[in-house]
Amino acid sequence: MIRVTCFGAAGSVTGSNYLIETSDGKKIIVDCGLFQGSREMELRNWEDWGYDPRAIKNIILTHAHIDHSGRIPKIVKDGFRGKIITSPPTAELCEVMLLDSAHVQEMEAEWKTRKNRRRARKDTHPLYTTRDAAESLKFLAPNELDQIVDLEPGIRIRFRNAGHILGSSIAELWVEDEGKETKIVFSGDLGKHDQLIVKHPFEIGNADFLFIESTYGDRLHRNFEDSKAEFLEAINYAISNREKVIIPAFALERTQEVLYLLGEFSRTGQIPNIPIFLDSPLAIKATEIFRKNKKYYDEATQAIVHQGFDPFDMPNLTLTPTTKESMKINEINGSAIIISANGMCSAGRIKHHLKHNLWRPGASVIIAGFQAQGSTGRQIVDGAKAVTIFGEKVAVRAKVFTIGGLSAHADQADLLAWVGHFSKKSNPTIFVTHGEPTSSQALATKINEKFGLSAYVPKWREVLTLDHVEAVREILPEPVSIDLRQDMLTLAEEIEAEISRFKEQIAVKAPKITEEELEKLKDIREELQTVISG
Ligand SMILES: [Zn+2]
Ligand SMILES: [Zn+2]
User: What tens digit of pLDDT does each residue of 54-108 get?
Assistant: First the structure.
């Protein structure tokens, strides 16, 4: 029987990672993403894979977003030597995305190490280095959309356009097991029906099992035209106050969509000629890859090209790849539009721009992307009066515009419409993943009500045994985080050192010890005992 284990993006949106196993021991991975958001989530990146990376021959990569691709350097570092099958634009985008991710990991480890040294603790190592990332790129194997590819005997795959970001794909997989062929479809992330730049998601008619994302499984986006109007209003709000417009944007797709809209506003004279900055080296590189891949554009974007325009450029746009250029932006008086990363305001240059502008009444902050639980962006969206940036409290006085209709994800209606293309005859069993639990459950319930299909929400580390009629489910125990274990060991060593010092002190000043001090020590012992006995 075929088994699929959900090692990521189950009960959460990040860390996409599914293991498919056949009875005769073939193993394939779909996506290898980074867990992002809260510290608890991030610690999962350090845990054991739950399988041996050396035993995997193929990784199917649906798209270049880090929550789907970000652990590729780690899996290669841990011994994976097979092929990473993906679309040509995804392979190109991964080059810049993974190197950048490694750089972020290195910077964070460096910062933690400096902090640790002040407290005489051990150095922190990055999850992977730039060198690991560069090495992992050698395993990328681009394959064009709409073509069936043999991965290994009895396993075939075909990518279909997912309409989410440039190069994003749905994976159709045919797996032979015990003489039977089973078709499993992984939606990857699906775009919404009026997604800018990329083409409409491909409509698939049949599958035995379907894994579908549910980022917005419980919500409907605002109408796109309304969102566009709101976006324009947010820009004009800050301009009328001679303040800045801050747009935290993911470097990939969201940035290009923002540029696309600004280009349109600029060509049609809807915004004045104020400076616009694209302040993210990664976004600058990603935009360059978009320019090279025009054949994947939708009709409207190709039309802009045919009229002689670059959809992602305008005369007042300045690219600021270097830190020096970036810092100069904050010396500018008056209005400007600043697009910077990352999109959840939790890292990168955007933090500097927020520190300079978030407290200014009259400025605009445009939140146009998904904000994971625990991120600074989520706090801003949820109406926090102040947020902590670089260890300092910054008041939120700028006007915050949360624009849902610019999402690159299908909303509930889009997801249901897409599921509706599967024929009654194929009657797929559906697993709803890549969403917060309430979101996934809402979509599962709707799918069941609307189409009468079985729809389940698997838990993290759940093993699904795919029978032709139903799935048997079992959950693997949670692993102990290597990072947490290390922290615990370091602390225990520190306590040991303190105790030796204490013993030496007692030997010297024994006569001065009071009854009270003895009692205090007894309390500490008791507390320690409760920690140890768990
Ligand atoms: Zn995505
Ligand atoms: Zn995703």
Answer: 999 999 999 999 999 999 999 999 999 999 999 999 999 999 999 999 998 998 8
Nearest to 125 by CA among 102, 98, 97: 102
Ligand at minimal distance from the CA of 8 is 2
Tell me the C-alpha distance between 356 and 395, whole Å. Answer: 11
Report pLDDT digits (tens) over 466-491: 986 666 777 787 776 666 777 788 88
- The C-alpha atoms of residue 533 and residue 520 are separated, in whole angstroms, by 20
Q: How far apart are the CA of 479 and the centre of ligand 1, in A?
A: 26
Question: What are the CA-CA distances from residue 24 to residues 53, 176, 471 (Å)?
Answer: 17, 10, 19
Amino acid at 402: T
Query: Whole-prediction pTM value?
Result: 0.85
Asked whether 163 and 213 are in contact (CB, 8 A), the reply is no
Q: Which ligand is nearest to the CA of 36?
A: 2
Ligand nearest to the CA of 34: 2
CA 495 – ligand 1 centroid, Å: 44
Judged by its nearest atom, the ligand closest to the C-alpha of residue 68 is 2
Ligand lying nearest the CA atom of residue 407: 1
Question: Separation of 239 CA from ligand 1 center, angstroms?
Answer: 32
Identify the CATH assignment for 2-219+408-475 out of 3.40.50.300, 3.40.50.720, 3.90.1310.10, 3.60.15.10: 3.60.15.10
Asked if the 224-406 domain carries CATH number 3.20.20.140, the reply is no
